[in-house]
Design goal:
2 strands, Arc Repressor Mutant, subunit A, globular, 4 helices, about 10% strand, two-stranded antiparallel ribbon, mainly alpha
């Protein structure tokens, strides 16, 4: 999602949403691709519930593949 889409989804100001996303990017919580879309990093997801994050086919996708615009 773009920062604008995220701000609208959570009913928040775009400027502050962008600042929060940039801080999260600095700590590797999210990644931004060349088109300006944001994605949650794979390194964070296994910590959420203790299970590895996988796609619908049961295979994990590397982060560069996940943020190539296919999300």
């Amino acid at each position: 999602m773009t920062a604008t889409q995220i701000a609208k989804a959570i009913d928040y100001q775009i400027e502050r949403t962008e600042m929060a996303l940039q801080r999260m990017e600095e700590t590797d919580q999210v990644l931004r691709n060349a088109e300006g879309r944001w994605a949650i990093g794979n390194t964070v997801m296994p910590q959420l519930n203790g299970h590895a994050a996988t796609g619908g086919n049961g295979k994990s996708q590397s982060m560069p593949d996940a943020v190539d615009g296919s999300i």
